[in-house]
Amino acid sequence: MPRSVNHVASKARRKKILKVAKGYWGRRKNVWTVAKNAVEKGWTYAYRDRKAKKRDFRKLWIQRINAGARMHGMSYSKFMGNLKKSNIDLNRKVLADLAMNHPEAFEAVVKKIK
Question: CA triplet 28, 31, 37: central angle to 5 degrees?
Fold first, then answer.
């Protein structure tokens, strides 16, 4: 009796990977083994960098808040410490936006916590 293989499922699995590899350069887009490796590596980077993106944005927000606070004669750590003592619940994303785009509102926050 001949060996039975589920060619439909394995072909679908390969098609799915090759569809994801569309737009890659050279053999990475049309050779199964090369495409599979490229796509898996891409997925690894995507997973890793979703985490790194959060770290990078937090760093950026802290730099912007620090720059805004120093314009008003205060360091970042003093600013954040006073903010917590004053029970003002604004996260770093909002504070960074205020410091960059609405300096008068940020100045009001600084005056409130001094």
Answer: 55
Give the pTM: 0.78
Read off the amino acid at residue 49.
Answer: D
Of the candidates 98, 40, 21, 88, the one whose C-alpha atom is nearest the C-alpha of residue 67 is: 98
Per-residue pLDDT band for 35 (boundaries 50, 70, 90) equals very high
> Is the dihedral angle over the CA atoms 99, 101, 102, 104 positive or is it negative?
positive
Cα 66 to Cα 97: distance, rounded to the nearest angstrom: 12
What are the backbone dihedrals phi and psi of residue 96, each rounded to the nearest 5 degrees, phi first? -65, -40
**Domain containing 76 — which CATH number?**
1.10.1900.20
